[in-house]
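Deliverable D4.2, example record:
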Amino acid sequence: MKSMEEVLKKIRTHEGVKACVIDEAEKYGKTFDLHGATVTVSKRTVKDFSGVDSVLDELYQQAESLKASIKAREATVESGSDPATGETFSPPKTSTTTFLTYKFK
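Output generated by the structure prediction step:
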């Protein structure tokens, strides 16, 4: 299943395939059926604010730094002790969630 997902991901992101799908969509409308599959072409707008405002750029940088700090601290807590301070932690509570999702149209 994982291999099939990777193949589908490569197909979806391949520029040549995208161009062919968009060409077909222009012929038949935004949504069309092809070999039993419903294909819908949609657009979304993604705004890139980087480099526009120095304050916002600094906030993005702080957010990335904070994410890295959180990951490092999680690893410390998961290990059970902080070598810098000698502090020990209770093992983290863990849960396992199993999910399987399919979407065919």
